Amino acid sequence: MTAALIILAAIVVVGGMCLLYELHWRSRGGRDEPPSAQPDGECCGMHAVCERDSLLAAVDTAIEYFDDEELDAYAGRVPETYTDAETEEFRSVLLTLLPDDVAPWARSLQLRGIELPLPVRDELLMIVGENRQQR
Q: I want to staple 82 with a disulfide (CB 3.0 to 4.6 A). Which of 12, 45, 68, 86 is the partner?
């Protein structure tokens, strides 16, 4: 008798949840639209890349330097052509950045026409991903 009551209660709870979802779905016009931007400025987690951390977001075209003016010499270079010493130069700048400055630094490099060496680019993407998970 007790097991039957538990099963009946579970069915009622699941049915109620389905009803609430259906009412919510209909109130939105029956469409599954992506959520709008979060009002508090936080990433909603529904996008492959959060707009706030996006390396490609063209919100601001003003170039910001992160005490890395020496990297301007690499503008227009192909990533595969960097030497180990040049790769270390990029890595040393990356590793001295604050976590919140990593994505803006990458955006600054893009605006300046500087491509990261492939190993440093992989490290940068890993750092940005870890920063996003911690938020």
A: 86
| 121: pLDDT strictly greater than 70 | yes
* For residues 45-74, average pLDDT: 68
Q: Tens digits of per-residue pLDDT, 7-18?
A: 877 787 777 776
Nearest CA to 71 out of 100, 119, 105, 122 is that of 105
Q: Tell me the residue type at 63.
A: I
Q: Could you please report the per-residue DSSP string of the chain?
A: -HHHHHHHHHHHHHHHHHHHHHHHHHHTTT--PPPPPPTTS---S-SSS-TTT-TT--S-------S-GGGGGGTT--GGG--HHHHHHHHHHHHHS-GGGHHHHHHHHHHTT-PPPHHHHHHHHHHHHHHHHH-
